[in-house]
Structures are given as C-alpha cells and as structure tokens.
Q: What sequence folds into this?
C-alpha cells in the first residue's frame, strides 16, 4: 500500500497519513538546496515533473520506507581512534581566537537561518495567494503579508566589518594556523593506521572500483563549454560539409547561409579545422584571469575563429542546442554506468524583462529540460567587459538589472499557471542555485554606506559585496514565498577566491551555502578554519586553474583542503578548454587521484561531498547516499556512498572535538582565570585537572603506565592517545601482515643485541661510579694475560706458567676470551637474515606505516604543545637559550677542523714571524730547508694569498666526485703543503698541525658551550703508527677539556697492498690493534700511548662508500692477499670484533673502552647500513636511510646515534632541500648535527653554530628543537660520564623527564617526556601486533621499572650518606625533587579532603536530578558563583604553598608537621566547600 506524505511544519518532519509513524531517516536535512517545507514528492529519488503531463511523481512505496528503517542497524566499526587529552589550554590567544571564531560562526548561522527559513513558523494553510501584491523596496522584493524580516544592509555592513576584523586579527590567525596543523596531522595519523582497515571495509576492487559505483556531481560547469573540443570541431566540419545551405542569419537585404558565413570569414576548407586552430585551448605560455574564446584578442585563431564560435555556441544561434542536447541525453542514458550528474550554468544577464521567458522557451523547446541528472544554476555575470557591452544599452541605474532578474521570478512563482509564466515556472522548478561571477582581480571590495541600487548610476559599478548582498536578500524573499507555496527553493553559490582580495571569500562564508574556487583562501588561516568549522562547501576546478595559469596543478590547495576535512568537491568549469575526454568529470577525478595520490576512499569522499554541495533536492540526495545521509556515519549507506563508516566517524569526531574546544575556551575562561595558581617558580599547578593558563607543566617524581599507554608523570602536557580496537580485531594485528612484520622486526632487533648488547641498569650505576682501578693502572705492570689472534681477531686469556708466543694463526684457542664471539661465517649468515627482513614487502609496508605515524604524531604534538615547549621563563630563572646549551661536534676530521680563514691567517702569520723554522731536509743535499725556502720553492707568496687561492672550499666540482673532494685537502693543490700543515708525521713532528688544532680548541673554549670529537688517522700500514701519534699528542700537549679524540681507520688496504707495505689484510689488523693490546696488557710498555688512549673515545672507519663492493666472502684475513679492497661488511666485522674483544679486556682491567662509530649511509649500497645495524654503536651521515623504511625503523627502535652533516652532504651527495635530517628528527631517530670538514664546507669562525643556524632556518627548527639536537650530541659523544653529568645533568642516562636537567640542557621536559612515551608506546604497539611481550628485552630505552628502581636506589644512597637533620644537596635537581615531593604531598592531602567532603555532602543532601532530567546549567552564572566562593580557598591554598616553600629552604629531611596542616585544610574545606555545594544545588533547581 502507498502512503501519502504531507508537510507537517517548517521543521521538515514528515507524517504518513496511514499506519506508518514518522521516521528519523525521512527527516529533511538542514540546507542542501531546499527549504524546510518540502514538496509532496520530497522522498522521491529524483525531483521534477513528469515530462508528458507535468504531474508530480508518485510517493514512495511503504516497503521502501520499511527497508529504510534498517539503515541504522550497523555492525560495530573497529578502527584506531586518535584522542587528545586536555586539548585547548586556556591561553590568552586561544580564548581570544575562540571568541572571534564563534562570533563569526554565529554571524553565518544567522544569515543561513534566514535564507533557509529556519526562523519562521507556518502551516500548510500558509500559501500566498496568486493575487498577492509585491514590490521592490530598497533593492529587495517584498510581498504583502510577508512574515520574514530580512537582515538589512546596515546590519550586513556591520557584520562584514566584524568579519574583516577577525580575518585580519593576528592572534586569531596564529591559533587557526595551529588548529589547521592539528587537523593535518590527525588525518595523516588516521590514514597511516586505518588505510588498510578502510580498504577492508569497502572492497576497492569490486565492480571496477569504488569510484565507478558512487554518484558524483559536476558542481560547476558552464553549458556553453560543456562539450568536448574535438566533438565541437567535428560538428562544425559535419555541418559545413553536409548542411552548408542552412540559414544562420537573417537581414533585411538577404539571408546568410552557413556556406556564405564561412566564405565571408575565409574558411574555405572545413576539413582542415583543428582544436588549436579554432583557438579552443588557451595558450600554455600565458596567464588569464578568464579565458574568452569569443574575444578576438584572447582567441588564438583571431577574429574569424571568434565569429565562428559565436555562431555555434551562442544561445540565439541555430546550433547551440544541437551541441548540448546530446550531452544531457548521454548523461541520462549513462547514469547507471557512470553515475555522473551535473549542475550546468546558464548565463542570466538581467538585461531585459523578457530574458527569463527566452531562456525557458529555449530550454524546453529544444528538449533540454526535465533531466533527472541535471540541476540548473543561473549565473549572473558582473564582468566589466559584459557590463560595458551593448546588452545594457539604455540602463540608467543598477536597480534595473535586479528588477530584470527577480521580478519575473516573482511573477512565475505567484502565478505559475499563467500562460506567460508557465515555462518560466517550470524552469524555476529545475533551478537549484544562483551564481555570481565577477572580476575579483581588478575591483576592490570596500563596503559603501547604504545607498539603494536605484541611486547607483549604471556607469558606476558597485562593489561585489554590495551586489551580492542584494542577490542574497532577494533570494531570501523569494525562497520565503516559494517555501510557503510548497515549491523548491534556491541556494546562493558565488564565485569567489579565484583571485583578488579575501573580502569576497569573507562574503561567501557569510551568505553562501557553498562557493566556487576559493584558491586565495590559502592565504587566510582564519577563513580556512571558519569554512571547516561551518562545513561550507567548496568547489574547485584544478585543471581549469592550471590551464589559466592561475595556480599550477601541483600547488592547488585542493589536497590540503581535503585532508583537513573541508567539504571539497570537483567541478570541470569549462571542459571545452581544459579537458581531453568526453567524460570531463571522470577525467577531473582521475587526474586528481593520480597526481595527488588520493586513496580510493578519498575519491569517494570527494564524490559524496559533491552530492552534499549540490543543489539537488534532499530526496534525490537520499536516493544517492541513503535516507539517513544527513546523520553522517550513523545514517551512512555504504552500498550507495562507498565511503566507509570509519572515515565519516573520524571526520565527525574531529569536527566535534574542534567545536568542543571553542566552547570550552569561551565558557570556561573565567573559571580557568581564578582556579589557576600564582605562577611561582618551582611551584606545582593547582591540584585539579585544569590546564594552567601560564602553560607551566606540573612536575612529579615518578613514571607510570596505565594499561598499554606509557606515561611519564613527571610532566603535564597534552598527550596523544591512539586507541586500538579490542575484541577479535584487536590491535595492529587486526591486519594479519602486522603480526608477521612485528615478528620479523623482533628477529632483526635480536640479531643486533647479539652483537651490541643494550645498556642495562648496571650501566646506570657504572656510569655514575668511577671504574675500578682507573687511578692505579701501573700497580701491576707485569701482565697476567696473554693475547692471540684467531681468525683475524685478537683474544686474551690468563697467562700460563710457560707463556706461549703471540700467534697470528687460525688454530684453536681454547680458553681465550671473549667467549662466544660470532665468527665471520656467522656474521654473514646474520647479515643475510637482516637483508631478507629488509627486503620483505610486508615488513616494508609495516615500517613505512609506523614511521608515518611517528612523524605526524610529533607534528601533532608540536601543534598541541608548542606553547609549553617554547616557554622562555623556566624554573630557577633559566631561559630556553640554545647558545647556553652544550653541544658536541660528533663528527669532525682534525685535518679539516679549522676554517679556510683560520688556515690562511696561520700561513700568513708563520710567513711573517717564523720564516727561519726548519720544516724539512732536502732529500738530495741532506741540508735543512727553512719555511722561507720552502715557500719560495713552491712559489707561494703569502701576502697575496686569499681564501679563494687556497682552493680548499667546496664547489660544484665535488658533487658525487670523491676524488675531487680528497684533492681539496691539499691547500693550493699542493700535497707537500698539506704534509707540512695538516699531518702529524712529518719532519717537524706535526708541530704546525698541533698549533692549528689548538687555535680551533681556543675557539671552543671561548664559546664555552661547544665541544668536539676530532678524528686522527691510523692507517694500519706500519706497526709504529700508534707510537708516533701518541708522541705527537704528548709532545704538543694536545689534551683539551673541549675535545675528545677519535681514531679513524681509512679503508685503503688496496693502496698499501699495491705499494707492498702489507702482504695481507691481516697485516692491517695487526698494525692497528696489536699496539693497543700490548699497552693494555702493560701500560708501562708505552706510557705515552697509554695516556693518549684515555683521551680517545672511539674508532671511525672512513672512505668513499660509493665504490662498488665485492660480495662478502668468508675468507680469513691472512688469506686476503689480493690487491682488491675487502668489501665494506668485511671491514665492519673485523673492526667490530677486535674493538669488542679489546673493550672486554680493558673493562676487566678498569681501563677506558671505545665505541665503534663508522661512516655509513653517506652514499653507496643499503647493505652498509645493514652491516652497521649489527656492528656499530653509532654512525656518521646515515642519510641513505631515507631510501629504506625498514632500516630507518630499525635505527629508530635501536636508537643508534646518527651524526648528520647536511652542509657536507649538500656539496658531495645530497642537496640540502632533499636532506632527510628534519624527517629523521621528527620521527624520533637519535640524530645530531656535525660539521664533517669545516675547511671545505663552512664560512664562519663557528662552524658548528653555522651548521645549527642553517638547519634552523632551512627546516624551521625551534629553539627547543635545537636544544634537543644539542642534548643528543652530548649523549652520543664519547665524553666520560662525569663530563656528561656536568654538561647535561647527573641523571642524563635516564630517558624520561627525570633525566633532563632543564637548567643545563635548556630543553623542555615536555619534549623529553614525549620522546620517552612515544618510544615505549611504539614498542607497545609492536607487542600488541605480535600479541606477545617479546620486545621487553629488546628495548634500548630502560624500562619504567628500571628507571624507577634506579631513582629509588639513588635516593636511598643519598639519604644513607646524609643522616637525618643534615643537608641533602648532591645536586640542584635532587633538592628540587625533594621540594616538589613535599608540595605534592600537601596537594594530595587537599585533594583527598575536598573529595571526602563532596562525597559526604552528596550522601546527606537532597537527591540530585538525574542526568536525563537535569537542565543545562547557566555557565556564566556558575562561573560567577565559583569565582566568588573559591576566592578565599585559593588565598588559603596560596598561603599554604608559601609556608611549604619557606620550609623548603631549610634543606632538611625532617618530616613536615602533618597534623596541624591537615586540621587547617579541613577547616578551609568546611568553611568554603559546603556553602559552595549548597549554592550549586540552588542553581540546578532554578536553571
């Protein structure tokens, strides 16, 4: 049976006059191009009348409505949710911006309510009689009995001025920019985590893909340019060849045929017409605001092409309807397959009263009307060229144009059955919107004082804001009329933001339901945020923008808007000019999908937005998207929209969160202002969970975890929680590949632990306690141990009674340590396993996803917490000063450690003061050679030397040319000068080199906070290299508190083998490591070397990585006798194995140990990074990690230190803009900045500061970012524990905020806590995917329990060392922790007391209303009451805090007098809280 549907009231509730009650799915949504009083066909799939009789289509069948009742019966959707804790801190700027934004949203809401009729009340009997009178009053038509009060121009001007003020407000811009950034990062995290879930929910492959099945609307396309260019040319050719005698123009003298027209315009051969020749495409080398093919100045074909196109494309011509009718019919016919609908624009000039009748007659007589897949848009052109054309001859004022546009509409709406109005009335029923197009680029937007349009002379073109208001106001009136008469209504959709000022966009936000273009909105963050918050539709045409030269396709803001959740759709605008297929909208979507790399769900979401942005009736939208489409995800019919529920849920949750932030900021600002404590240094925040307006983080003394979410409770900040779904699809393992990938990554981490064990809790203790025996190295000079080389690796054991000679063979060495050292064969096997894991596609996908989450999570953290992190005033009066933060140049070569200017000045000073220095002996005559003689022989004139002539600085010739780079080490291209100045082993014993190095050290000392780890070379060519280097160090006193030495071993075996210096690779290993074993066994054997090794922090391995490697073969070093250099992995294994064994012995004797930090990942194969994953403590460069997500993720999980040198990379292998350093940093890799070779790459006298400065300006690093990188550099460096404690704090080994000494590092505790939590939560995510705690032993950060235990032991030791009553002040941080502990105890007591009183009052007081029955509180009244009542409480609390602070200065361990304080707190609560709760009850009863 059928149900007759009727309109109940203006709210759009439907009631069936039958057995069916009204249903939620049938309710008409707000907006959408219709008023609230829908016609009786409101539930029809298509709007419009039957083509033959004009009767309304029949209503829906009852079974259809019953099926709709099942729309909301959905399965629970499981996906990763992104939640933010305590967002929207009560900062002053946030409060100001929230007030401004909400005020703008209220302005828009007021105007939209008026045009949509949502402020009216009427019944079915409210139809306006056909004989009602109407008249134009001050530019707006009103009718007798009109109940609508339209917003007048004066109020409109006032509102627009308020809007302009907000749009240009600095604080509001800053806040909106930050909120948009948050939206960007939320979306990126959502996609990274849920992209596969979305694809699973909607099979992207079925039926040709999602896009082919969903309805999409071309929201902006001109009918005159809707055809394909080649189709137009073919049509012209066909008419010229076969229908040339058709009369195309008539005149008094004679009729003009098509043939005559062509001959007159010199078109003799129609077959030769082409798209380019006719001028249908704009030239690519020019930029246009608007391309007009009818203009002979713009058309490349000139005057004849312009005339030809006017003949075929003008409405009054004989051919136009023949061109467009097939397009409309094709859309109808192909709808089932293509699902494409259109909103074609018809020009409405307003040049005569009969224009409406002419348009309607043309539409219906040529079969263009009654198309279910099309909705007409009337476009009112305000282009200067058109206004000055003969169309408007005789116009006296601007009122005439408004009369011609709107008065015929009133006539047709009031009297649709009149013969003169019937076709116009039918056309109005098919119109959805009105569009205004103007010259935004050339006309200003100033709002004039009120001046009726009939007082504006026609030759004075009023501003767009003025004209658009009158179009909108007239649409308000006519919508009111049509709504009362049960007719369709119209929406206002102007063109704005294509070029020009922002004022047009501001107007569009207030007046329109959606806009076309909006390109310039990218310049205004406020407008972007407003359009997002109000979900104003935006229709962009990227191909048109690109073709006009307005905005290049890659720079179009479409993608940015779409990701942020703005309601974006696509329109083709002018397919004739900018598209190359017959299906222009499909081409538009396809191009966007490919060039913007859109996901299938992104495309369907845009298609869904195109339906929402369209002016089709609500019933039609319901047929395309589902009856409950207006309810969002709750009413989403996935089988129609092809947008998964989780995408809509995410969009709704994000928008709801943003709106709640605005509400909280506006309504809670008063409460926040008086509940906040006084910002006193070292004081805790108020004990309730409100964000402090000062942004001061609350410090506690412990680290905890809640469930799977690891939290550093030492710091309060806005946290990002990613909630993993529970149940069968729990965790990241809901995608089966994730568990597999996590398992393989755990294998890779286990392999690294096999070679480089993680630092455990024992390392904390050993780092804070001097190593045993460090001060008594010579006590037992006669060594009890012997060492032997087995398989290229030195090992040791206790010396037997009959000592055996040192062996270098591969015989069994039972009892030698370290035991269990992996062999070369085992290393190769493990490397191949790493290689297999890295190449696994499933692991790559998983690693890429997790890296994306880490990167965007950090960016989101920065957007949420930048105020907390960048606070300039820290506790204790310190500041966030990067210059005061200690920083270490973790990768610098001593031979290039000076700058070019320093080297030049040194040469000139020696030439002026030390010409008699003997620098060498002549090999032929054996006579001494002075510096003066040396310079003359080399033809060097120091007085004329310049930095340029030295030729040591990098230039374009170095890029990917390592040979040219090595030559730059030779000043003036002279290798003998290099030997004299930059070598330790020369006739002068390296004196000049030592003096140059000391000049660099002096610069470090002057700077106070800059340190370095300079590299010196040991080649392994001769056995005495170590002795000579140690002698140079001792002779010249090269120890410096600001420098730690490292030893680099160049991988140049092939050179020494060719020279005959060595016979096998084992000789190199012996020459490098045997002297170290000998001096470690017996320091007396070489005291200078023993002393030098105390200043050596580690080993480096250097050479050109881009040289192709041979395969890694298992060949003993003694058998490697070829002239070919061993592969990189071979070098890495034997360097690591020998350093590892040596460290084991030296640690046993209480001597210093060495790190292995090779050059790796600068160029060459990714296999180098795999080798170093197993063998290196840290690496230098590492930029090639950007090519491999698995390796990059492994380096994050292992927190391997990476010393990156961007300026060096920029000259040699990788341009600065392509450097991955900022991405590494954001993702949380352990990176630092280093100079590499200041001689070549730097220009200032502070190369490390220059490196930081360039990075800061290039990648927009904050001061806090710089301080974090600096702290990383100290932690990566080889300085001893005592020095690191001096530089960055005693607990620097702790990774939580407890290990950060802000007064030393100048780094925010918020950042440290975020990194700590992000790492542990990443491990938790891996374990969730794996469903097993396998990663506990693989964490490189100490666990929470380990850190807490270490802190407890430290404090217990401190209390034991300082008995009760004595001062405890081993460090300022310890005293600070003690003070905070006392204050936290007081706050805890206060919280408990207040909670107890509240519970007691609740149990004794009158019953409170239930949540469902309670009315909404008056928030302002509540704030006033709270402010008055809590003022005494806040004063008393402040007094208690001051008492506690006064007691802190005693520095004692005595417990505070708890009983008196508790009694006083109880009195405070009794005095204040009880009456306060009573007053709250009174408010609830009366609200």
A:
């Amino acid at each position: 049976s059928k149900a007759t549907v009727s309109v109940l009231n203006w709210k759009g509730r439907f009631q069936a006059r039958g057995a069916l009650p009204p249903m939620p799915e049938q309710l008409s949504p707000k907006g959408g191009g219709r008023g609230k009083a829908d016609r009786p066909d409101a539930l029809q799939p298509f709007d419009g009348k039957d083509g033959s009789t004009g009767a309304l289509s029949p209503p829906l069948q009852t079974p259809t409505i019953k099926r709709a009742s099942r729309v909301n019966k959905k399965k629970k959707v499981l996906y990763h949710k992104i939640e933010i804790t305590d967002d929207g801190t009560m900062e002053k700027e946030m409060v100001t911006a929230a007030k401004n934004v909400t005020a703008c949203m209220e302005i828009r809401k007021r105007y939209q309510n008026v045009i949509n009729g949502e402020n009216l009340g009427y019944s079915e009997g409210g139809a306006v009689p056909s004989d009602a009178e109407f008249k134009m009053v001050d530019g707006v038509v009103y009718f007798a009995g009109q109940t609508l009060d339209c917003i007048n121009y004066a109020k409109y001007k006032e509102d627009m001025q308020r809007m302009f003020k907000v749009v240009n407000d600095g604080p509001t811009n800053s806040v909106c920019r930050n909120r948009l950034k948050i939206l960007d990062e939320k979306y990126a995290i959502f996609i990274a985590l849920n992209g596969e879930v979305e694809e699973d929910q909607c099979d992207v492959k079925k039926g040709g893909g999602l896009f082919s099945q969903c309805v999409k609307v071309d929201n902006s396309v001109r009918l005159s340019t809707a055809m394909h260019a080649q189709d137009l040319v073919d049509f012209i050719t066909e008419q010229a060849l076969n229908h040339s005698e058709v009369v195309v123009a008539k005149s008094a003298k004679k009729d003009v045929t098509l043939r005559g027209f062509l001959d007159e315009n010199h078109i003799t051969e129609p077959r030769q017409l082409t798209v380019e020749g006719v001028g249908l495409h704009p030239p690519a080398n020019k930029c246009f605001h608007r391309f007009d093919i009818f203009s002979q100045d713009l058309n490349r074909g000139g005057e004849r092409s312009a005339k030809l196109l006017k003949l075929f494309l003008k409405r009054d011509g004989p051919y136009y309807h023949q061109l467009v009718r097939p397009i409309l019919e094709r859309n109808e016919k192909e709808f089932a397959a293509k699902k494409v609908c259109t909103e074609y624009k018809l020009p409405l000039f307003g040049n005569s009263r009969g224009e409406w009748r002419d348009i309607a007659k043309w539409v219906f007589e040529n079969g263009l009307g009654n198309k279910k897949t099309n909705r007409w848009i009337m476009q009112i052109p305000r282009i200067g060229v058109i206004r000055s054309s003969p169309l408007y001859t005789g116009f006296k004022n601007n009122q005439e144009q408004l009369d011609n546009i709107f008065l015929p509409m009133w006539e047709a709406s009031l009297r649709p059955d009149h013969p003169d109005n019937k076709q116009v009335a039918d056309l109005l029923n098919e119109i959805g919107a009105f569009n205004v197009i103007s010259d935004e680029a050339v006309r200003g937007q100033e709002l004039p004082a009120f001046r009726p349009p009939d007082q504006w002379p026609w030759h004075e073109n009023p501003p767009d804001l003025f004209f658009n208001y009158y179009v909108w106001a007239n649409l308000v009136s006519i919508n009111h009329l049509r709504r009362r008469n049960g007719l369709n209504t119209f929406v206002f959709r102007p063109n704005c933001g294509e070029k020009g000022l922002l004022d047009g966009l501001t107007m569009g936000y207030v007046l329109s339901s959606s806009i076309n273009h909006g390109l310039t909105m990218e310049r205004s963050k406020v407008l972007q945020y407003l359009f997002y918050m109000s979900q104003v539709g935006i229709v962009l045409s990227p191909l048109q923008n690109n073709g006009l030269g307005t905005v290049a396709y890659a720079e179009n803001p479409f993608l940015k808007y779409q990701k942020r959740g703005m309601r974006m759709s696509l329109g083709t605008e002018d397919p004739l000019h900018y598209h190359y297929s017959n299906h222009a909208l499909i081409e538009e979507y396809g191009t966007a999908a490919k060039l913007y790399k859109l996901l299938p769900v992104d495309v369907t979401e845009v298609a869904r937005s195109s339906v929402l942005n369209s002016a089709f009736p609500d019933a039609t939208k319901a047929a395309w998207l589902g009856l409950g489409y207006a309810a969002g995800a709750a009413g989403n019919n996935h089988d129609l929209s092809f947008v998964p529920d989780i995408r809509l849920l995410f969009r709704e949750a994000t928008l709801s969160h943003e709106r709640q932030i605005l509400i909280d900021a506006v309504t809670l600002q008063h409460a926040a202002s008086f509940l906040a404590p006084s910002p006193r240094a070292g004081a805790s925040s108020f004990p309730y969970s409100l964000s402090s307006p000062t942004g001061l983080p609350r410090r506690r003394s412990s680290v905890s975890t809640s469930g799977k979410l690891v939290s550093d409770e030492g710091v309060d900040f806005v946290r990002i929680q990613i909630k993993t779904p529970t149940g069968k699809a729990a965790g990241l393992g809901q995608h089966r590949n994730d568990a597999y990938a996590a398992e393989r990554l755990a294998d890779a981490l286990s392999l690294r632990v096999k070679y480089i064990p993680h630092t455990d809790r024992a390392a904390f203790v050993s780092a804070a306690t001097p190593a045993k025996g460090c001060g008594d190295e010579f006590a037992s000079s006669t060594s009890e141990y012997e060492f032997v080389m087995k398989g290229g690796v030195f090992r040791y054991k206790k010396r037997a009674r009959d000592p055996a000679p040192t062996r270098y063979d591969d015989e069994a060495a039972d009892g030698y340590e370290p035991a269990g050292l992996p062999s070369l064969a085992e290393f190769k096997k493990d490397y191949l396993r790493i290689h297999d894991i890295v190449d696994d596609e499933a692991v790559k996908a998983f690693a890429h996803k997790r890296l994306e989450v880490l990167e965007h999570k950090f960016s989101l953290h920065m957007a949420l917490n930048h105020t907390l992190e960048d606070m300039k005033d820290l506790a204790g009066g310190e500041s966030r000063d990067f210059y005061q933060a200690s920083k270490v140049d973790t990768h610098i070569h001593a031979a290039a450690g000076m700058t070019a200017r320093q080297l030049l000045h040194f040469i000139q000073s020696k030439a002026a003061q030390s010409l008699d220095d003997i620098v060498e002996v002549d090999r032929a005559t054996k006579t001494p050679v002075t510096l003066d003689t040396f310079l003359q022989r080399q033809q060097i004139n120091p007085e004329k030397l310049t930095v340029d002539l030295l030729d040591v600085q990098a230039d374009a010739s170095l890029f990917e040319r390592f040979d040219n780079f090595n030559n730059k080490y030779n000043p003036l291209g002279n290798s003998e000068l290099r030997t004299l100045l930059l070598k330790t082993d020369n006739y002068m014993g390296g004196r000049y080199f030592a003096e140059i190095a000391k000049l660099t050290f002096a610069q470090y000392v002057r700077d106070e906070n800059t340190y370095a780890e300079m590299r010196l070379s040991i080649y392994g060519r001769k056995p005495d290299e170590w002795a000579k280097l140690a002698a140079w160090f001792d002779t010249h006193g090269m120890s410096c508190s600001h420098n730690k030495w490292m030893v680099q071993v160049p991988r140049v075996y092939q050179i020494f083998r060719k020279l005959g210096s060595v016979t096998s690779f084992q000789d190199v290993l012996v020459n490098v490591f045997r002297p170290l074993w000998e001096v470690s066994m017996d320091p007396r054997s070489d005291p200078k070397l023993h002393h030098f090794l105390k200043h050596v922090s580690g080993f480096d391995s250097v050479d050109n990585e881009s040289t192709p490697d041979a395969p890694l073969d298992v060949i003993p070093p003694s058998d490697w006798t070829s002239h070919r250099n061993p592969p990189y992995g071979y070098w890495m294994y034997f360097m690591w194995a020998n350093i590892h064994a040596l460290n084991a012995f030296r640690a046993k004797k209480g001597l210093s140990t060495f790190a292995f930090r090779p050059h790796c990942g600068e160029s060459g194969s990714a296999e180098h990074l795999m080798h170093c994953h197993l063998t290196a403590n840290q690496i230098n460069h590492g930029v090639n990690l950007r090519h491999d997500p698995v390796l990059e993720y492994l380096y994050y999980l292992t927190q391997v230190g990476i010393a990156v040198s961007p300026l060096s990379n920029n000259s040699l292998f990788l341009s600065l803009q392509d450097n991955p350093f900022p991405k590494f940093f954001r993702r949380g890799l352990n990176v630092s900045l280093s100079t590499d070779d200041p001689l070549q790459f730097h220009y200032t006298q502070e190369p490390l500061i220059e490196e930081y400065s360039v990075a800061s300006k290039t990648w927009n690093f904050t001061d806090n970012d710089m301080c974090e990188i600096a702290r990383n550099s100290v932690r990566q460096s080889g300085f001893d524990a005592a020095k690191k404690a001096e530089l960055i704090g005693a607990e620097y080994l702790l990774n939580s905020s407890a290990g950060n000494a802000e007064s030393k590092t100048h780094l925010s505790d918020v950042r440290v806590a975020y990194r700590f939590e992000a790492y542990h939560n990443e491990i938790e995510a891996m374990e969730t995917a794996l469903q097993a705690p396998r990663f506990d032993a693989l964490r490189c950060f100490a666990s929470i329990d380990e850190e807490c235990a270490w802190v407890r032991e430290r404090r217990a030791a401190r209390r034991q060392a300082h008995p009760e009553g004595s001062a405890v002040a081993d460090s300022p941080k310890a005293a600070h922790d003690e003070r905070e502990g006392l204050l936290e105890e007081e706050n805890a007591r206060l919280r408990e007391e207040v909670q107890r009183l509240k519970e007691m009052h609740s149990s004794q007081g009158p019953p409170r209303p239930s949540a469902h029955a309670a009315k909404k509180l008056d928030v302002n009244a509540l704030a006033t009451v709270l402010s008055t009542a809590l003022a005494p409480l806040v004063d008393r609390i402040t007094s208690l805090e001051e008492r506690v602070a006064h007691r802190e200065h005693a520095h004692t361990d005595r417990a505070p007098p708890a009983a008196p304080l508790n009694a006083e707190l109880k009195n405070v609560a009794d005095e204040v809280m009880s009456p306060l709760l009573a007053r709250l009850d009174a408010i609830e009863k009366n609200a």
Observations:
- The chain is about 45% helix and 10% strand.
